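Example 3.2
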Amino acid sequence: MTLEKKLRVPSDNVEWGDKAEDHWRILFSENLCTVMGEEVLNDLVPDFDPDEEYTEEENIEWTAETMERLDECLEEADRIEILTRCSHQIPDEFLDDLRRVWKETESVDELHRYWQRRFLHNLEKWAGAIPKEWKEIIAENCWGEAGRKEGNVVIATKIPSNMKGYFESADPREKRYHYCHCPRIRSVILSDEKKISSTYCYCGGGFYKSNWERVIGRPVRVELIESVLKGNEVCRFRIILPEDL
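Structure, written as tokens:
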């Protein structure tokens, strides 16, 4: 398959469903080519048709094979660079006030304190009304966008996708299922047979990387600490900021 065919941009009127075009395959392939060059595309990306509709099962199988190829063939730094580029990106305008604070103070500490206050203020706008004890757990453990700052490192922990399911479940596997934001991974969590490398979780880590880089205008590094794919209850990342800030 040619690069033009494999990376064709899908129609805007395609809607996600049980069987749909898999936009993430296209995004991943584009970023792989950006980082490693087009010549590695056919070796590292299992063949697919960007116009084809795929089931959840097919998406999982494709992703598992792709991550296995990356783990076997690429250095960790290259894998991280590719996957972090595939993350969900919040619009620039949602970062405007953070950039303003950074520009006015040039203080990472001031920026981080403001970021944490903003996150907690907006939490229920995203998650809906939640019990006080759940919000306290999130705040005390510094889950969410801002994370916990330790020197020039930010420990960022995702908040649960399904708050009620996560906090009310006593079953570890069920908690991981309700915690994860990715449909591919939720299905894997419930299976005894399906496996996907935790390399894939750097896609989620890219959310934090992108936010920090766009706010401070400097590159940052991200490292995976914990992941539901590893059996942990949360997904946690280390965001390493420039030491000279």
